[in-house]
Amino acid sequence: MTPTTPARRTLVAVLAAVALTSTLAVVPAAAAPPAAVAERAPHGDAARLAQQKSVAVRVLKGVFEDGDTAVVDRYVRPDYIQHNPFAPDGAETLKGLAAAVGQQFPDAAYDIKRVISQGDLVLVHSNVVLTPGSRGSAVFDIFRFQGGLIAEHWDVGQEVPESSANGNDMFSTVSRPRTAVPGPAWLTSFNEKLVTKAFDRLLVRKDLSALDRYWGPEYHQHNPNIPDGVAGVRAGLGGYFQQFPSLTVTRKRVVAEGDLVAVHSHYVNAPGERGQAVVDLFRVRNGKIVEHWDALQDVPETSANDNTMF
Question: Pfam families, from UniProt (predicted)?
Answer without folding.
Answer: SnoaL_2
